[in-house]
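Marked as duplicate of an earlier ticket. Keeping the data here for the record.
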Amino acid sequence: MNNLNWIAVSSSSISRIAYVENDQYLYVEFTKGRTCLYKNVPINEYENLLSAPSHGRYFSAYIRNVYPFEYV
C-alpha cells in the first residue's frame, strides 16, 4: 500500500483514497484509521467519488454496499 498514489480528501469520514486502474481497486482510508480495499470499482466511480461535493455521502450511496471489500 505504500506505493499507492493517495489523494487526501476533505471529509469527516474519509481521510484519503487511492485507485489502481489495472485492477479496479479502490482503497479508502477512513478517519478512524481503518483502510478498506474495494474490488471491481470502475474508474468512472472513482472519478465521481473524487469530484463529489460530499465524498462521504457519495461513498455511502454508491460504493459502500455495492462493491466487495476487505480490510487491509
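See parent ticket for discussion. DSSP finds two helices and five strands in the chain.
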